[in-house]
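Q: Given only this backbone (121 positions), what sequence would you predict?
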């Protein structure tokens, strides 16, 4: 998905009109339209404001990652003083085989939490 599609999807999912986003960014409605249609690309300052407005990372908007959350969320405490960053760093440090085991375990946990009706399908 390119930048324009991501911007359009974020805006429409949150029920934001082009006019509202344009006012927040201090640009014209036609500028928002041109971003969404990949005619123009916002400058860095505007890109940062778009990321802040939709609470996503600039890397997500640029297509560098599918991780949507902004960098500030890395400091968010998940449990017992472990932040998102702590857990991600721990996962990255694991050998590949252990990371694969972790993914299998997570999938097992997700399937065990699925409603009983869905498990029987």
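A: Predicted residues:
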């Amino acid at each position: 998905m390119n930048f324009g599609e991501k911007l359009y999807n974020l805006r429409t999912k949150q029920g934001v009109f082009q006019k509202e986003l344009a006012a927040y960014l201090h640009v014209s409605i036609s500028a928002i339209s041109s971003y969404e249609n990949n005619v123009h690309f916002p400058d860095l300052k505007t890109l940062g404001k778009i990321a802040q407005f939709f609470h996503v990372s600039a890397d997500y908007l640029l297509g560098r990652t599918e991780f949507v959350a902004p960098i500030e969320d890395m400091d968010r405490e998940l449990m017992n003083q472990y932040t998102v960053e702590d857990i991600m760093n721990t996962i990255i440090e694991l050998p590949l085989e252990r990371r694969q085991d972790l993914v299998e375990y997570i999938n097992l946990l997700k399937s065990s939490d699925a409603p009983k009706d869905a498990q029987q399908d």
